[in-house]
Amino acid sequence: MAASLLPLHGQRQGHAPASSSDPSASLTATGIPEVVGLIARHLSKTEVAACALVSRAWHLAYTPFLWKTITARIPNPHNALILPDLLSRFGSLIRTLVVTDLHEHFLSRSEPTSELVFDCPGIDNVVRLTVRTDRDKKRAFQSIIHRNRLTLRFLWLTFQVDKSKKSADWRGEPIMMLKPPRPDQELQSWLAKTRMPYLQSLYLEQWKMSRQELIWILRACPALTLLSLKDTHIVHEDVLLSTASGSLEDLDMTSLSIDAIPIDADTESGSSSGGDEAAETDIQSGPPFQHQALQTFRMCSRLSLLLDLFPNIKTIEFYQFDRPANELELELFCESIRSHCLNLTQIWSYGYECSMLPLVLNSLKNGKGLVEFRGCSDMPTVLSILEHARTLEEANLTDFTEETYLPLKFLETCPRLTRFYTGQSPTTMTDVKESVIDHGWACMSSLKELRLGIKKISPALIEAIMQDLGAEREVDPKMYVLKVVEDAKEATSSNKAPPNKASSNKATPWLVLQQRHRQRILEEIAALTPEQQDFRILFADYLRKLPCLERVNIGSGYYKIPSRSRRMSTGM
């Protein structure tokens, strides 16, 4: 590998390419950081470590890539003895740190070194930090977060909590050492010691905090664009104080205001009354706080009254940690969207309760309308999405339900649609033919990617249509690498064989399978029925008229469509 890089080094320095017999030439090639980066990107950790042992020059070049990404569990006491020295020497090279601890192990690890080994002054340039461990080790990571607060861009914190112990300190305030400012402390002075100016993505799981504590976090992260709250409880400050001897599930839900309803609680919530503390925004007087940069909020419906903090939010994501909401909760959620989320245009609802989506989607009519939807798609949800046909640009209905309803209706009524993906659907070739001839597609001038499930369409017919379009099947990179390797083996075998026997070498099994599959498809294409041939001509001609179409999948994988100029030049 190194020998092939020698001309680059010679050309970079303005000299003739180094001789392949020069033993130092391969080492000097690593003087180009871009070359080292390209090499290390395609090597495993073991291979990078081997490169670092070749010479002093390679040690200096490859060691940063060896430490760039560290994934580790909380160490046991044995290897904790050697890690502090290594981390003090190389910790500053770590850019991505992932620390995990299996739930069944952490209770038996009470040694201080097992939790503090990563609390090392040398670890001070981390950009991405992911922590999944028990709450007892929380204090060690407070220091790590605070030490790297000026470099962090991505932070994911999950501290596993044994709810049966009814822990009193299960709360979000300590996660970034964001202790509220003292009454005599100015806000700017407090921010100077706590601000994380470049943090863009924050994931908090299994926390309990008040609305005010969340505001402290938001104030300290002015560049935050994504906030994810999973299994997180937003409660009032007085509720936090009253839970010192019990869990949140023990509380009388009727005594809380609506924004004190816990997310993913095991008990069903009831009515609630408001409190003055929910309106508190700062120790300083002034307008209510709002985070201007946040654009994506991963949430549950019970977090609806936090939406007033995010006036510029564009995307709301629901994941499997949500559950059906009661009528009052859903009404408050939709009202919050109408009042505070005028820029909201994207709804992602993976694993979300379908019955709630129509009301949520209808709430977007007061704003800019729905631009992108991903998620579940029962019939009421599909009808609600189609009410936003004028603004819809992307709809991903793939793999979230057993069937996709009315897929052709999207193509016929959404003029701005650029990407459309369906799962299984009852759409037949006759339906597609009627759609193309009788209605036409409103998105002809904008559609770039299409995945359309067509019932009972054969692989041979799909291949014939793609051949007419001049499309190329997208190959799995792993299969492509396998083909290259086996082609190389075949070439090597041919070179070693006697000249009179080289042509008799058998192809590799993978190539044999591909050749057989190709031959079978060609035979099936020749045997297409007249009805299938008519559909082939009609659909291929129609897809050819879509000027922006780049990728298409109608049942047997994605194909890359040549550009319109290329199609015209080849007469397709």
Automatic annotation (TrEMBL):
InterPro entries linked: F-box-like_dom_sf, F-box_dom, LRR_dom_sf
Domain F-box residue range list: 33-71
Coiled coil: none
Record's compositionally biased regions (Low complexity): 16-26
Region (Disordered): 1-26, 264-284
Pfam family, one: F-box-like
Name of the protein in question: F-box domain-containing protein
